Structure formats: C-alpha cells, structure tokens
C-alpha cells in the first residue's frame, strides 16, 4: 500500500477524508508515514462530499476512504453527486479477503457492482502488483474527458501483499485534451457573426476546463453577451458589461430569461442542458439556433439536436473560436444587442430590499452580497435556499460558487465547506444551508470543530420543508412537511453549542449585517465553524415555473 500512497502524493493529494476500519487498516498503515493529512469524518457520505468540495475548489482529484460493507454503500450518494456534476474524486474501500467474498463474509458486499452506475470506473484489486498502476489509471480516468468519480476496492489480503515499485521512475499518466476540428470552428464563428442577437452560454465545463480567460477573450472580441448555468456561475464575472444573467425555471434572473427569449443564437460551451435550466424544450428552442461544444461526444444531441455540434475541451475550443473570430471579423464594438441586454438588466431586477418581519429571503442574499467580498467561496446545496441563491447571489470568480447541481443531496454543504477550507485555509468560506439540509449530516460539524476548520454557516430557516410545500400546492395539499421546531424540535443554536461552536439567531433584517460580521470575526478568532441562523417567513416561495416564460417578480404568498 505504500506504492498506492506514493501515487496519491505524486498526483497532488495533500489531504484525504475517511473513516478507518479493520478491512482498510493496511492502507492506513502506509498513510500514516506519508505527507498526506487525514481527517476522520463522522459518516462516509460526508467524507465523499468533503473530497468533492476539495476537488471543486482545487481542480484536482479529491480522495475519500472507507472500510468494507456499509462504508462503501454510504459512499454511493457522494459518488452519484460527483458523477452528476463532473467532479473528479477517487473513493477507496476496504474489502474482505478474496477467498471469502463468495461466502457471505462479514461486511463483504460487491461494492464494485453497486458503484458501477454512479462511477466512471469501479475496480477491485486482485493482485498486489496492480496497486500502483490501478491507482494511476484511477486518477487518469477521474481527470480525463468529462471528469468524474472512480471507486477502488481493496481486499484486505491484497493490501498486505508486496509489489516492486520505484516512485522515482513513475509519474502521472497523460490526460488527453481534445482539440476541435477547424471546420466546425469556422462554421460556428460564421453563425455568431450572422446572428443579430447571439448569446454565449457557459456551463460547468468552462469552470472545470479552466477556460474562463478564453471565454472572456471570445466574448469581448465579438461583443457577445454571456450567460452562465448554475454550474457555470463564476465562469464570467457578473459585474462585466457583457454579463447577461442566468436563464432557467428555478435558478435564474428575470432579465436573464428575458434576454434568452430574445436571442436568436446560443453558443453553449460545457453545458448539458439540464431540465431545470431549459424547462419546456419547445419554449427553450423556439426562434433560436444552437451550437453545442462539449468534451464528451455522446453529450451532443442527448437532450436535443443542436444545429452544430463541436467536440473539444472547453479551453482549446474557446481559444480556437477566439482566434478564428479575429481572423474573420477582427475586433467589434458593442452594438444594439449589448445595449438591449443592459436595458433588460436595469429594468427587470428582483427586489431584495425588504424590511419586513418575518424576514423575506431575498433580503438575506442582499446582505450576503454586501458583506462578503469576491474572494469568498460560497457552498450551497438543494432547496428553496439554493434557488434563491441562484437568483440573488453575485459571483465573480471561477471555483468560488460551489453547488451540487444535478443530484442535489441534502447535507452536502458542511462537508463540502470543510473540503474547500482544507484546500484554501486563508480563503473565506460560507456554507449557505437550509434547516432541513443541515440536519442530514450535521454530525460533520464535529469534524470541523475537532480539526479547527473555520468557516461561516448561514442557515435560511423557514421551519419546514419549504420547497416540498411549494410543490405540494399543485396537489392542493400541505402534508408531511412540518418539522415541529417547538417542543421536541431542534434548537440549532444549542446544537452548535454542544459541538463547542458559536451560533446566533437572527429574526430582524436590520440585525443580519451585524450577525454576519460577528460570525466572520468569531470564526477566525476561535478557528471554528460559526452558525448564523436567519429566521425567514414560512410561506415564502421562489419564483419558478415550467418554462422560461415564468419571469414574474418574487412575490411571497400572503
């Protein structure tokens, strides 16, 4: 196992998240003599989410470790989350001895077969001599093409074996960076130049492909407005005059939807056309042509057939488009379309300046935007608070807005924030959580407390399952969504105190700013996670609908 650990070190891994157990102890025996830091998490799902957050923040491959049996099954949600959002992680599980696998041995489960649908590769080590090469291949697969998770299963007797390995003669395997063909690039630029109202749509592949500079160069050269998907937030600075907002049925801006509906061509790069972005496809596609650029060939045409498909890595693809644009058109000045997008931005904002008590959710995000600077990394998960975050929060830099987009596992945020803070100890980190999501993996607060990992947790608490209640309105019911915060419920401030961590509850909008300032200072002073619980109105809804036509202003239910 020393060979496997040496491979991880050479692949840039400096921290791993895991739970030791009998079937994985040979790997831990090798790990203890390495330069890799290990954090003992409280649940294997939390470990995978922490590795996920570390990977999203760094762009490198995160690592999570567990023992046999339920450790691996607990990792499945984290594997699915990483696969859905194209995040490179490697999960390592212990296993019963090879000779016992068919005998229903203690905690012997076929985790490889279980994990195959939610990984790019799931493999069990059969011989000690495979160890360095299987680990090398795992990191290569996780990073290549559309990135994603890999699972390595290690029978305990194989872990104890010996192999010949010289780390001085080994290095990471090369990762192919597909370059687009010249013909489709020329055609795409012609389509951009012919369009009257073109948009560039930047998805998560632009962030993951480190292609943000190339995106900006192309947009500025042709003066084409840029929209981002939820996974693409941060790919283009939101204070740039060419920023055109977000389109979608949930995480969207009103003016972004309006601009999209007025567009006649969309150049989508590294975007998968998720259903929460597109809504009704007839509305989404009507009146506009699409050019789709993606590193994964089978992604083209998966949701709908584009007018032009281009296979290529986002960075060289955008660089090639910019070079071809220079050749065909040179520099261009902003025209009427750019001015129109600016007009929409100025005239179709959502209100966020409410002074009401109980607090209206948009006011929370107004205060977050005002208090935390552009270097802050925000982490958020799924629910009404994610939708409001996408609608109201401002992002200016790549890898500074991290969200579990497609899988949407509750409980993701605290663990992911731990991973981000381990990657960048000097960067401010804020986890925006819902009350119910926080409770899914709230034991992971103990990890941050034990290892003195400081970050701010902002809880948007409406005291029940707000998104589900909003969905239930279509069924004319209000069933099974009350969390009973009165007698027998959870007091989150007292809960944080039990972990040895500071917390404060806010019930007036005028107190939010002071509470955020206190939390940031107290977190750094105590080197602990600090909670600000903000009580918002129970009946608040997020503006969303079945298609992009739903651009109504935020209107809370009376």
UniProtKB/TrEMBL annotation:
Record flagged with keyword Lyase: yes
EC annotation from Swiss-Prot or TrEMBL: 4.1.1.47
Similarity comment: family membership: Belongs to the TPP enzyme family.
Organism name: Pseudonocardia humida
SUPFAM superfamilies referenced in this protein's UniProt entry, alphabetically: DHS-like NAD/FAD-binding domain (SSF52467), Thiamin diphosphate-binding fold (THDP-binding) (SSF52518)
Superkingdom, taxonomy of origin: Bacteria
Record key words, sorted: Lyase, Thiamine pyrophosphate
UniProt protein name: Glyoxylate carboligase
Occurrences of domain Thiamine pyrophosphate enzyme TPP-binding (ranges): 382-533
Membrane-crossing segments per the record: none
Gene3D superfamilies the record matches: 3.40.50.970, TPP-binding domain
Domain Thiamine pyrophosphate enzyme central: 185-321
Domain Thiamine pyrophosphate enzyme N-terminal TPP-binding, first and last residues per copy: 3-113
GO MF: tartronate-semialdehyde synthase activity
Lineage of source species: Bacteria, Bacillati, Actinomycetota, Actinomycetes, Pseudonocardiales
